[in-house]
Q: What sequence folds into this?
């Protein structure tokens, strides 16, 4: 997998406002927030997009959701939205799996 901005954040080549880190995942503030609270949760394992995940990634994917929930709570969110874009046609621009966690404002449905 080619280097991405996220792999460079993991390796500390690019600075980020890191909210959480363990051996499997990293959570950091989005540099272009779309809500008062907007952060990303990424695996340290390079998975380009959700559809590239395999059965061996099952525990990691669950871990990412728990990290998202825990960091949301630490950020004071009780209501929040999770978003995962899969592929360019779904507006994925960085090809390293990531979960957007957005909160702090009402959201409408369906999303844009």
A:
């Amino acid at each position: 997998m080619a280097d991405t901005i996220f792999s460079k954040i993991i390796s500390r080549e690019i600075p980020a406002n890191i909210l959480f880190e363990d051996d499997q995942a990293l959570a950091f503030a989005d540099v272009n927030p779309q809500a008062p609270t907007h952060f990303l949760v990424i695996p340290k394992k390079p998975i380009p997009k959700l559809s590239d995940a395999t059965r061996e990634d099952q525990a990691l994917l669950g871990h990412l959701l728990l990290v998202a929930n825990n960091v949301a709570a630490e950020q004071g969110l009780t209501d929040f939205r999770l978003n995962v874009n899969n592929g360019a046609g779904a507006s994925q621009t960085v090809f390293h799996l990531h979960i957007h966690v957005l909160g702090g404002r009402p959201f409408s449905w369906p999303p844009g």
The chain has two helices and five strands. The first helix runs from residue 5 to 10. Residues 5-103 form a domain with the HIT family, subunit A fold (CATH 3.30.428.10). The CA atoms of residues 20 and 27 lie 5 Å apart.
